Amino acid sequence: MFSISTLDTLVPSTFESLVQLVDAIFLQTRGKHGSMLARYPQLFERGNWCNIYCAMDTGCLVGSVVTRPFLYLLRGKICSAFMIGLVCVKPELQGKGIGRELVSFVTNRLIESECNAFLWTTIPEYYSTHGWQSNDIGVFGTLKSLTNNISGLILDDVSQNIERLDAIREVWLTSRVIRSKDDYNVVPTSVTEVGCIIRGDEPYQSAYALFGYNDRVAYVYELVGAPKQFSDIIGTIQGSFDSVSVNDCVDSDSFQWFSALNEFEWYPQQQSMMLNSVSCNSKPSFFHIPYFDRI
Predict the structure, then answer these.
(1) Is residue 209 over pLDDT 80?
(2) Which residues 6+ apart lie within 8 Å of 172 measured at CB?
(3) Topology adopted by domain 138-268
(4) Tell me: the pLDDT tens digits for 37-68?
C-alpha cells in the first residue's frame, strides 16, 4: 500500500530517487541523454518541492507528479494557475493504479485550491475521467529546408537577451505566460540546445524566434513581434537546418504569416487539457501556452 506526500515533507534522499526515476522514464527509455534537473532547473529547485507529489511505499519512491505555479496575462488581467507534468511510475509497478491515484490526488488538491491548471498529453481520454477538458488551439507544421549552412548560423544568446525578448513580448502579446529569468533556462527533451534570433531595434519594430535544435533539426517555439521581420528570421533558420518544425496557435500573427506560405500545412496538436476553477474571472477557455513553457 502506498501513500502520497509532497517532496518537501520527505527525507532528502527522496529527491535523488525522484531525479533518477524521472531521468529513466523521460530520457533514458527514449534514447536521450543529460538530466531533467539540468533541462528544467526551475521545476526541481527546493522552493518547488511543495508542488512535487511522491507516491511512497515502505519508504521507497514508486511514482511522482510534478506541478508548478505560474502567472499569465489574459486580456489585460494577470491570472495564476498550475501546470502538471512528468507523471511517472516505476516500470515494474506500472499498471497497478499508482499513476491513476497520483493524478486523482493532485487534481483534487487543485480543485480544493480553486486553481486553474493545464497539462499536455497524448491520452486525453485518460485525464478526462479525472475532470480535465481538452482546450487545445495549438498547431504544428514543418517547413522545407533551403540550404545546409549550419556552421554559418549566428544565434543571439537567450540568457543575455531576456530583457529584450520580454520587451518585444510586452508590446506584441496581449496574452502570454509571464516568465522569470530562470524560466529561460529550460531545454526541452526533444532538443540539445535552445537559442534565439532577434531582428530590429525598438520593441515595436522588432521580432524574435525562440527555438530549440538537435543536430540538423530545429523546433520553433515562438515567433513574436513585427511581421516584417519574420521572413529574415525564419529564412535564417531554414537555411541552417535540414528540417524546421513550428509550434504555434491559430490566433497568432505568426500563424497568419506561416499560413500564407504555400509550402506550409498545419496539423492540430490536440494535447492541451485544462482544469477550470474560479481563480480567474476571465477563464482561459482556449489559452495557448507555448511548448517552451510547458512541463
Answers:
(1) yes
(2) 203, 207, 224, 225, 226, 253
(3) Aminopeptidase (3.40.630)
(4) 999 999 999 999 999 999 999 999 999 999 99
Is-contact 54 64, C-beta < 8 A?
A: yes
- Fold equal for 3-136+271-293 and 138-268: yes
Q: What tens digit of pLDDT does each residue of 212-265 get?
A: 998 889 999 999 999 999 999 999 998 889 889 999 998 899 999 998 886 778
Handedness of CA 43, 44, 49, 53 (dihedral sign): positive
- Cα angle value 89/83/109 (rounded, 5°): 75
- Give the per-residue pLDDT at 14: 97
In the chain, what are the domain boundaries? 3-136+271-293, 138-268
Q: What is the CATH number of domain 3-136+271-293?
A: 3.40.630.30
CB contact set of 162 (below 8 Å; sequence gap of 6+): 181, 184
pTM of the model: 0.91
CA distances from 34 to 17, 74, 100, 208, 235 (A): 16, 35, 28, 27, 30
- C-alpha cell of residue 108: 483534487
pLDDT in tens, 284-294: 556 789 999 99
Structure-derived torsion over alpha carbons of residues 109, 114, 119, 123, reported in degrees to the nearest 10: 70
Segment holding 40, helix H or strand E: none
Distances (CA, A) of 147 to 2, 139, 235: 55, 25, 10
Residue 211 vs residues 28, 91, 94, 199, 237: alpha-carbon distances, Å: 23, 32, 34, 15, 9
Q: Is residue 134 pLDDT above 50, yes or no?
A: yes
